[in-house]
Predict the structure.
Amino acid sequence: LTMSTYDEAELCYPHLGNSSCRKIVRSHSVSVLLYIILSSISVLTVTLNLLVVISISHFKKLHTATNFFLLSLALSDFSVGFVWIFQTLLLDGCWFLSEGWCVFNAVLTAVAASISVGTVVLISVDRYVAVCDPMHYSTKVTASRAKISIVLCWLCSVICYTALFKDNIKHPGRFNTCAGDCTVYLPFVSGIVHLFLDFIFPVSIIVVLYVRVFVVVVSQAQAMRSHVKMGKFHVSQKVNRSELKAARALGVVVVVFLMCLTPFFIVTISTGFAAINTSSLIFVLCLVLFNSLLNPVIYVFMYPWFRKCVKCILSLQILKSGSSEVNVL
């Protein structure tokens, strides 16, 4: 009797018997700790990225091409904050929501991650042009072109992943092995497309561009030092210095992004794509999602304007008339 009760306690749906999935059994204290950590990350991710969105949207001085790319990244990271809620629900290995919500979770996660990847590529291109071709930057990278690029990035991600997950969208729950399971099916060809679109192709572009930027940064830094020694430090060098600082800040974003993204693709490649059980990928998936919290944290340390904006927002100064004209740079 005791053994039977113990077995039932390990099932997601005890009344369904053998057709139910088994729970991941943890001690009560460990489960509570994990729930608190994941819930805190979700709240922080949503809050910090919302602050970035409000800052760039409200203050007109921040309406530049580079900041619009940061706004796109913050919006995708903001949506990822909500995906964290689903990961919290999967902690014990059981999915208690409907099959439709399971597919929605998978598609939203993929779309948000894809938009983040696309935006990081756009940021890399932006920094490459700013550092390597500063004379033509203002004509090549305009606010309107940045907006068009962002819209295309979002549209392509939504269309692409709706197509890749079409079998799951048409037949939600079809690939579940037991009650309480949340498994999505990605055919091998779709998996390869996903790998190229969201990892190999964009990461190659990012690495090549940032290697080029790094080479230019080093050469410009040496040139600046020689100009300072000769007493020929002009405004142009100061402009270059601000661009180099921006490149360094966004370089940190890119490196952290790659560190968080790579383990997920290594695991999905090793499993051969096909049926992906969400609970079995929870650690590497959480690493990808955790990147969405790290981005605004990086801004706090690297961008003085973000700290000024946060003070204005939290002190409710943005509610005053004309606050959008304030120079936060």
